[in-house]
Amino acid sequence: MSSFFESFGRPTGALKVVAVNGSPSFPSKTNALVEEIIARLGEQVSVESVIINVGDLVPFFGASFADPSTPVGVALAQIAEADLLIAASPIYKGSYTGLFKHVFDVLPPAALADKPVLLVATGGSERHTLALEHQFRPLFGFFQADTLPLAIYGHDSEFENYLVTGEGLSSRIDRAVARALPFVSADAREASLHPVI
Ligand SMILES: Cc1cc2nc3c(=O)[nH]c(=O)nc-3n(C[C@H](O)[C@H](O)[C@H](O)COP(=O)(O)O)c2cc1C
Fold first, then answer.
1. Tell me, what DSSP letter sits at residue 168?
2. Which of the four pLDDT bands, split at 50, 70 and 90, describes residue 43?
3. How far does residue 131's CA lie from ligand 1's centre (Å)?
4. pTM metric for this prediction
5. Beta pairing class for 152-155 and 163-164
6. pLDDT given at position 194
7. Which of 165, 170, 162 is nearest to 28 (CA)?
C-alpha cells in the first residue's frame, strides 16, 4: 500500500529546501537564522539547500523575470521546485521588506499551491513577532500554500556576530523543525504515525 506521502507526491529522497531571505544587507541576521534552521533540518533528514538572498537579485529585477536564463528567473524556478520553502525576511516597518514582496510579486500565482512554507522573520525587538501571522501568512494564503503552523521569529539580542546565540531562539528553532518534519518528510511522517512506545 502506498504511503500518505507517496500518494501526494511528497519527497522520499533528499529534501529540497529553498530559502528566500528578504534582507537587502549582507551579512544578515535573517540569513544566519535561515542557515541555522537548515542545519537543524539536516540533523534530522537528508537536505539539499539553496538560500536566495534577495539583495543579490536587485541589479536583475529590471530584466524579464519570465526568462529562465536570468538570475531572477533561476530563483523563481528554484522556489517553484522546492519541497520546503523557507520564507524569511527582516521586519521593516512592521512587515516583510519591499524586496521580499517583489520576489513573490513576480512569482506565478500557481507556483506555491500546496507547498509547505516555513515562515521566518527577524526584528529589532520582540514587538513585531505577530507580523508573521498578520503580514507573512496572508501573502502565502494568496498562493494557496501550506504555511506550517509554527513560524520562527528571532530578535536582535538573540544574535552575536551574525550567529544565533540566544537559547530561547535555539529551542524555538528545534520546536518548529520538529513540527515541520511530518509535513515534509516521508520518514518523519511514518515515525509520527507509528510512534515508538
Ligand atoms: C529600514 C528598517 C526598518 C526596520 N523596521 C523594523 C520594525 O518595524 N520592527 C522591528 O522589530 N525591527 C525593525 N528593523 C530592524 C530589523 O528588522 C532587524 O535588525 C533585522 O534583524 C535585520 O535583519 P538583517 O540583518 O537580516 O538585515 C528595521 C530595520 C531597518 C533597516
1. H
2. very high
3. 12
4. 0.91
5. unpaired
6. 62
7. 162
185 lines ligand 1 (CB under 6 A): no
Q: Is the CB of 124 under 6 A from ligand 1?
A: yes
Q: Is 156 in the pocket of ligand 1 (CB under 6 A)?
A: yes
Looking at the structure, give the CATH architecture of the domain made up of residues 4-193: 3-Layer(aba) Sandwich (3.40)
H runs (alpha helix) in 96-152: 98-105, 131, 137-142
Residue 4 CB neighbours (<10 A): 12
Query: Domain limits of the chain?
Result: 4-193
Q: Quick: pLDDT tens for 63-76.
A: 677 788 899 999 99
Find the 24 Cα to ligand 1 centroid distance in Å: 11
pLDDT bucket at 112, cuts 50 / 70 / 90: very high
Q: Which residue's CA is the closest to the ligand 1 atom numbered 30? A: 92
> Ligand 1 centroid to 176 CA: how many Å?
22
- Bridge-based pairing of strands 152-155 and 159-160 is unpaired
Per-residue buried b or exposed e for 87-124, using 16+ beta carbons within 10 Å of the residue's own CB: bbbbbbeebbbebbebbbeebeeebbeebbbbbbbbbe
The average pLDDT across 160-182 equals 97
